[in-house]
Amino acid sequence: MSLRTRIAALFLVLALSSAFCPLSARGQKEEDPENALAEATEEEAAQKTVSRRDGSSSIWDNPPESHRDLWRWCNSQPSLIEDFDILLEPYPLRPGRNFNLHLRGNLKEELPDLQLRTLIVLSRFIRISHTRNLCAEQPGLCPLQPGYQELTITYAIPPVISGPITVDATMVVGSKEIACARMGPLQIGSSGFGL
């Protein structure tokens, strides 16, 4: 392996070490406390589980047909969730941009806490594992109540990424896995930065 190849591989590993890093609820810009609090409240409301009985609009109102081919259950369909679906926005994924993972389904029972454990596999060799405590990130989210729920989780994608990419997303309550969805292979679009 040449020195140039080693340096490129090291750069890729460093770039991917932050792959799919979670974003904070307020982003990364500095703001005055009043605006930050108002925006945080709006974002919490937008990212909180939402019942759509009131007729408000949702990403799920007109989902693209192709999104159904992006995921399948890792093992078998879980017993605690019915009518579950996943939508990635934007898709194809774009290096250097954020993407939203939209989840929806009908919970059969209350969930006191919720973690999302992801295993991202890049080019079949690079594995990145990450766990997010969704209840800690989004105060007021938990406990999740039985019934129809929608949840949006934002991730950042590093500027340098190659495919194919697969993602196993496992929902965990306490130490119990309640569902696992496998996404991929996922398409990577151009960054739009002219790179």
Automatic annotation (TrEMBL):
Whether Signal counts among this entry's keywords is yes
In terms of superkingdom, the source organism counts as Eukaryota
Domain MD-2-related lipid-recognition residues, every copy = 71-181
Give the matching InterPro entries. Answer: ML_dom
Stretch forming the signal peptide: 1-19
Give the span(s) annotated as Disordered: 27-61
Q: Which UniProt keywords apply?
A: Signal
Protein name in the entry: Phosphatidylglycerol/phosphatidylinositol transfer protein, putative
